[in-house]
Amino acid sequence: MKQVLALCCVVVLTGCMSTDPYTGQEKTSNTAKGAGIGAIAGALVGMAVSSKSDRGKGALIGAVGGAAIGGGVGFNADKQEAALRAKLEGTGVSVVREGDNIRLIMPGDLTFAVDSYAVRSEFYATLESVALILKEFTKTNIRIGGHTDATGGDSHNQTLSERRAASVGRFLISQSVMSARVSTAGYGKRYPIASNDSAAGRQSNRRVELELVSF
Fold first, then answer.
1. How far is CA 89 from CA 58, 83, 126, 130, 175, in A?
2. Domain 90-214 - what CATH class?
3. For a FRET experiment, which of 8, 21, 126, 180 has its CA 20 to 30 Å from that of 51?
4. Exposed, middle or buried: residue 64 (CB in 10 Å: 0-12, 13-18, 19+)?
5. Each residue's pLDDT tens digit, 118-150
6. Residue 5 to residue 21: CA distance in whole angstroms
């Protein structure tokens, strides 16, 4: 088991001196984190399925396999994040990294006209850029969520948020993103990211989010 722990440490430490190109700060890369977690999980599985005399060997084999799988997921997410940031720079769309998943936050005023669920023609190029990346990196599912501010009736906001999410989903599918990867939902005003007491806060809450979930 000491060998396994040493391997996990090496995997994690290998990536800990990477520099975030957007903040300039040094950090452990997500690839290394994923490999370390995969190594530990693989080691535990290897021990569980091995006989008592072979547990050390089983743990080592499991750790190597788990590190490869975990590191692969992290590496794919790292590349996808970098590609999205490059494509979406200056568009107003925020790219948020959450572990091996990525969230794209699209402000409602950029994506739709007031009280409309038809995607603005001015936003087509941005969504086309997103679709290009999604087609390149196929190891993600795309969860699209529509959100509104707290003004207006609950029923109206719910319907509007559903239709806006569905519009973005249809657009991506029209750009040859596989429909099986895309799911949509509307959340109305339930999940604000800012205070609805100010105009700026309400504007932030009117949005569509794309969550890219690695698998």
1. 46, 10, 10, 12, 21
2. alpha beta
3. 8
4. middle
5. 999 999 999 999 999 999 999 999 999 999 999
6. 30
